Structures are given as C-alpha cells and as structure tokens.
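Reopening this one. Same input as before:
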Amino acid sequence: MKKEKNEIGFLTDENTTEAFYVTLTDLASGKDIEFKVVSEAVLMGKRYFALVPPEEKGDDVIVLSVTGKGEDLIFETIEDDNEYEEVEDYFNDLLFGTSDYDN
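Same output, byte for byte:
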C-alpha cells in the first residue's frame, strides 16, 4: 500500500484523511485545549500551523510558529506584526480564498 505525506508532513495511508490534533495549554487559565491542524506552511524559512478548535465551525483560525519535530513540537505566538500579517494572509488565501493584502 502506497504511503504519502499529507499537508502537515506526517505519513498517512493514501485512502485515509486522518486529522492531526495538538493539545495546547492556555497559560492564563491552565486549561488544556485541543486544536485541529488544518494546514501547514513554510514561509520565510519558518514553519507555521493554522489551527482551529475541533468544535469550531467559523473562520476563526489560530496561526502559530512551530519548531521541533514529531512529538517535540514547540508552538509560539508570532510577535512581529508584519510577519503575522504575511502568514495570516497566506492561510486566509489558502483556506478561504480571501486575503487582506495591503498591496
């Protein structure tokens, strides 16, 4: 059976569309929240994930910078406003066909 990489870089069977989830801890409340990874991108030499809570039905996507591999992924907020806008525009265009480009 042929194996191939899906959009988040993990090997999956070609006949399955397994979802990939990550659990992050809200630092303010200490509560663990599970997110579904809906897309991955490497832009400007950095890796980013677009995440949504599994129960979310709207267009609310959380974009985080990602380092590490396998189960040792480290998620970080994007502090630079220009970097965040570029990455957000990319994912909006990819996922929704819309973006808010300033150019």
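So the earlier flakiness isn't reproducible anymore. For the record, The longest strand covers residues 32-43.
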